Amino acid sequence: MHLTPQAGRRVVDTALRLANQPGLEPVGPLEEVGGLEEFDAVPEGLAAFRVPALDRSWDEAVAGLAPLLHPDRPRPVSFDERSASLPGIVHVHLGHPLMRKATRTLRARLFSPRSEINRVTAVVMPGLEETYAASVSRLVLVGRGGLRLHEQVFVTGVRLRGSTVAEEKLNAVLDRMLDPGELRAASPAVRERLVQAWRADGAHLRTRIEEETSRRAQRLQHAVDDQLRERQRADTARVHGIYAAFRTNLTESLERIHAEEQSNQDMLAAWLDDQRRQRERDMHAMAERLAALDDEERREADAVARRYEDVQPFIASMGLVFAVSEQDADQWEGRR
Predict the structure, then answer these.
(1) How, if at all, do strands 49-50 and 25-26 pair?
(2) Using CA atoms, how far apart are residues 240 and 43, in angstroms rounded to an integer?
(3) pTM summary value
(4) 184 inside domain
């Protein structure tokens, strides 16, 4: 999942930039941060950042940064999990409101018709033996009634000159490509060569990626079939469990009321007519509810079964990444 401190900061900074907000500000020596005086040494390489003043739409995302005793002095944040044990720094993990807000912003902009995110990129990677084209796609499985049952992001890759790439090898390439490292953006000459390869009739690069993406999506769907069936069994069992508990509760309540009537006849005789009629109405309503539970339980179980019927896959392309070898980049730039 590329959960590195650098990737976390990049997510938040990108979301802030897309929302026209100022970016995170690096903090100076961490030994000077309030609350860290009791530590002999701050973990090596730990980076922290101050969150600048943001507009009100980000209030909930940064609400917990300022301590109660000093609401005007928000604490710095860090994306390094080692910061979780440091009281003077707030660890921004996947579940933190700031990260949740940032990822929601990125997802919304990514699929917006007027997205500001470039969904095609090309980078030159040192040590790469050949050039790859990788498509990042999202698979969504939807059951009858439009309920989303499963969602998964997956990558499909092909060699620019050749066949598809084994998933393990492609993941190894992407691990290097997606994380910050020693790579550079492709030059205009390299990008133009890739555009020609993408549009060329004889190379069928686009067709190869689309076909392989479809095949991999089918394999992924088959791989989660057992999980969906298990979820269906669990959901059905949950329905029966809820109704069994409800049925037991109503039955015991009616039995308790009848027992009270038998043992408290004198007290009940002293009740007003309105009180007696209300008690009878309550008992009648409980008895009717109990009688209707079987049909309700059957309808709920049928609804669960329909939810997992006729599962349809929907595939959306999220991005296209070209990983260019240095040899190809030099050749296309005319250096050799």
Answers:
(1) antiparallel
(2) 52
(3) 0.69
(4) yes
